[in-house]
Fold this sequence. Notes:
By secondary structure, this protein is α+β, with helices and mostly antiparallel strands. It has 3 helices and 12 strands, in the order H-H-E-E-E-E-E-E-H-E-E-E-E-E-E. The chain has 2 domains: about 15-45; about 50-205, no CATH class.
Amino acid sequence: MTKRMITKSLGKLTPRVWHQLIESAAFVNDNREQLDLAISRLTPRKPERPFFLAEITDSDRITEGGTPDDDVYRWKYAWKEVQPADPADETTHGTLDDVRYAFADVSGGLTSTQNSDAFHHYALNTIEAGNSSGLAGPGVKYTGLDAQGFDSLRPRPIGKAFDGMDGPGVENPMVDVAVIVPMFKMYDPSGGLRFFFSAVNVIDGHWCEND
């Protein structure tokens, strides 16, 4: 194979050319997410690793016009990538802190957080997708519960636990639970990268404010 040498330069690196290079680099940096999305639309592709383990770290009730609807219980979820913990520490084996059953954060791993927004790349729970008109994915019709005297039983977001009542009709803030789920990533028809998991909600407590 014949090697070809570059015999022509790109021109003098004048202040004007240098300024144009700086402007171009700044534009790419400031618009990286939009550029990545545009490229993904032009060159459809599958994620290299379609699923991974994630810890659900927070949830935010999906509402209409900012007002919770007692007939619809759906949330968007914040998350971070985790992996099985290193089992090498045998001193923990057989204890409640046994590392063989634990999970650890992935250094530099995927996360829903971007620019301090924990829900920037939020995940959706597919079990909740059809929750509407007083119906819930785990197989519950709210009016049926109400007719049996269980009008205070409603679904919980994944990763939150009911913690009792603080006075008549006032619910205590929910307790965080570190739930680990298989998280799937895929491109939607518009080319955007989306995240999904499937986990059944618990139905265990009062009308849920998610505070």
